[in-house]
Design brief:
By secondary structure, the protein is an alpha/beta fold. The chain has a single domain, classed as Vaccinia Virus protein VP39 (Rossmann fold, 3-Layer(aba) Sandwich). The chain contains 6 helices and 7 strands, in the order ααβαβαββαβαββ. The protein has a 7-stranded mixed sheet with strand order 3-2-1-4-5-7-6. The chain is globular, with a radius of gyration of 15 Å. The protein starts with 19 loop residues before the first helix and ends with a strand. The relative contact order is 0.16.
Length: 192
């Protein structure tokens, strides 16, 4: 599958990337939403996890804090934001691997991960890229693995049906939050 060379940087402009964490912390209940994702994922000590569109690494770090023995990998197409993620993980004392790549063309072998998590990425993707990202998520998940995803609800109303079309089972919406930027929903699907 061919990768697209373009991506939308955090906050839409490269020069705003260093401001991402403070602005999100100020305007959204980011920690609450991401902790809900981590809790829903029911991570175990033996799990190998992928944070799709990891951004500055906040979710990956929360995963390691919840389950320090789990193996966590973060993926994002933006090298600048990955540098921030690596620095944050090192400062927090967590061993997390961060790779550059796209959700619609995951650079991992089939059945590599027990859990996938993603937050605030899918609204950046075109509809076809969302479909490809969900197919890729299913491909890299092991049997009975889960994909837990948080994003803005309005542009992603069709996500539950896209999960099912990609082959996920037991697709459900498990939480809703209100933010200054609109409603946020949390979804989950399981690999058969």
């Amino acid at each position: 599958m061919q990768q697209t060379a373009k991506y939308l940087p955090a906050l839409g402009l490269h020069f705003l990337t260093p401001l991402y964490d403070p602005l999100v912390k100020w305007f959204m209940p980011e920690r609450k939403i991401k902790l809900s994702l981590v809790q829903q994922a029911q991570i175990t000590t033996k799990d190998h996890l992928l944070d799709v569109g990891c951004g500055t690494g906040t979710l990956a770090i929360l995963i390691k804090q919840a389950q320090p023995a789990a193996e966590v990998v973060g993926l994002d197409p933006d090298p600048d934001i990955l540098a921030i993620a690596r620095k944050k993980a090192n400062t927090a004392g967590h061993q997390i691997v961060f790779n550059q790549g796209f959700a619609s063309s995951l650079p991992y072998p089939d059945h590599s991960f027990d859990r996938l998590l993603s937050s605030f990425v899918f609204h950046h993707l075109a509809v076809e890229d969302r479909r490809r990202a969900l197919s890729e998520a299913l491909r890299v998940l092991r049997h009975n693995g889960t994909f837990c995803l948080a994003d803005f609800a309005k542009p992603n109303k069709s996500l539950p049906s896209m999960f099912s079309e990609a082959g996920f089972v037991e697709v459900q919406t498990f939480a809703h939050y209100r933010t200054l930027f609109g409603g946020v929903s949390l979804w989950q699907g399981r690999s058969p």
